[in-house]
Amino acid sequence: MSCELLTVPEAMAILKVSRWTLYNLIRSSEITSVLVGERCRRIPASALDAYVTRLCEEAA
Predict the structure, then answer these.
(1) How many domains, in total, are found in the chain?
(2) Domain span at 50
């Protein structure tokens, strides 16, 4: 099974949001993330896809 994990700066660039906004989305569980080791936060690309899909569905 393969799952692309993005760094925080990569996810920020894809969503075009600030670090503060991305971490708030993670804290509020709107976007899921994982810790690799003790300090490396990674965001599954599928989590960004799911978030954008939800936003589009809510806007419709």
Answers:
(1) 1
(2) 5-59
3 state SS of 8: helix
Give the residue ranges of DSSP H helices in the chain. Answer: 8-15, 19-27, 45-59
Confirm if 4 and 45 have CB atoms less than 8 A apart.
Answer: yes
pLDDT tens for residues 14-44?
999 999 999 999 999 999 999 999 999 999 9
Contact of 34 with 42, CB cutoff 8 Å: yes
Measured CA to CA, the distance from residue 22 to residue 13 in angstroms comes to: 10
pLDDT tier, 12 (very low <50, low <70, confident <90, very high otherwise): very high
pTM: 0.88
CB of 15 closer than 8 Å to CB of 26: no
